[in-house]
Amino acid sequence: EAQVTQNPRYLITVTGKKLTVTCSQNMNHEYMSWYRQDPGLGLRQIYYSMNVEVTDKGDVPEGYKVSRKEKRNFPLILESPSPNQTSLYFCASSKGISNQPQHFGDGTRLSIL
Amino acid sequence: DQQVKQNSPSLSVQEGRISILNCDYTNSMFDYFLWYKKYPAEGPTFLISISSIKDKNEDGRFTVFLNKSAKHLSLHIVPSQPGDSAVYFCAASRNTGNQFYFGTGTSLTVIP
Predict the structure, then answer these.
(1) Could you give the CA distance from residue B70 to residue B67 in angstroms, rounded to a whole number?
(2) What pLDDT, on the 0 to 100 scale, is given for residue A102?
(3) A93: buried, middle or exposed (CB in 10 Å: 19+, 13-18, 0-12)?
(4) What is the count of residue pairs from A and B with beta carbons less than 8 Å apart?
(5) How close A101 gets to chain B, by Cα (Å)?
(6) Residues 13-32 of B with CB under 8 A from A
(7) Separation between Cα atoms, residue B71 and residue B48, nearest integer Å
């Protein structure tokens, strides 16, 4: 089954404790992306990757890091989480960006205390 | 600055009637538009898309209309069904760009 898998689904942690949210897709997609969803703000793109070892900032990259060492995996790293990063996070992938819809994971709800 | 806007946070419609969800955009360089549907505790799922070379695209009960001069698109669902109750996001991208831009979402409730 074609899918994008995120882990963990839920996490409550404290300010400053490094965390990683993993994302894996089994569709051999080139393009992968991370979004955060906040009330009244919709989905905002954090980082995206056009292919292995190619990553770039989206609209809200501050406080986040990503890496793309393998085509299937695109982890999101919060080196020193802060309460304003409490949000619902989605990973997505697509074959490309031109005229290609994205497949989304089921989301990771992060609470930073 | 929000480049894709959905000005109606919510919409309620009777079962069997038409649902019309609206979306406006500011960037005239956008040339690919999509609608996604999102149920609680799930990720958005792709619903329907339209390229800027068209002004209408239809898929079953779902039709998307694009008015480039007004920078406006709309999603029509007819007839609406209770299972259509969800949050709907519109999104846009540029053929020469690398990003997708999403609206803030419209929560549709279809009343049985």
Answers:
(1) 6
(2) 92
(3) buried
(4) 62
(5) 6
(6) 32
(7) 18
